[in-house]
Amino acid sequence: QVQLVESGGGLVQPGGSLRLSCAASGFTFSSYAMSWYRRAPEKERELVGYISATGDFTNYADSVKGRFTISRDNGKNTIYLQMSSLKNEDTAVYYCHTRDVRQYWGQGTQVTVSS
Q: Residue 37's closest CA among 84, 103, 114?
């Protein structure tokens, strides 16, 4: 079955950096576009960004554009979210996502930006 496992979250100071990973299994990873979402406390889930199956195309929410970068390693069945210049408002649970006829989510990893 499809499994998405996020890792790399933690506590970081404003202005700092963090890299999240999402290890995928149970499907042909290189054929699927992947996304990162986040849910901040008391807010709706928000799309952070998207990467195409080959990694040639990425797109980002305006709130993270220029600070976050999504990449993937199809040999390792893993996508990454490199976050820099982190702000307090980036505090959220970050989720890995993909879909076919169903949607698939990881369990999430907490990112807390605080001094």
A: 103
Tens digits of residue pLDDT in 26-58: 999 999 999 999 999 999 999 999 999 999 999
Three-state SS for the chain is CCEEEEECCEEECCCCCEEEEEEEECCCHHHCCEEEEEECCCCCEEEEEEECCCCCCEEECCCCCCCEEEEEECCCCEEEEEECCCCHHHCEEEEEEEECCCEEECCCEEEEECC
Give how far the C-alpha of residue 51 lies from the chain's centroid of Cα atoms, to the nearest Å: 10
| CB count in 10 Å sphere of residue 46 | 14
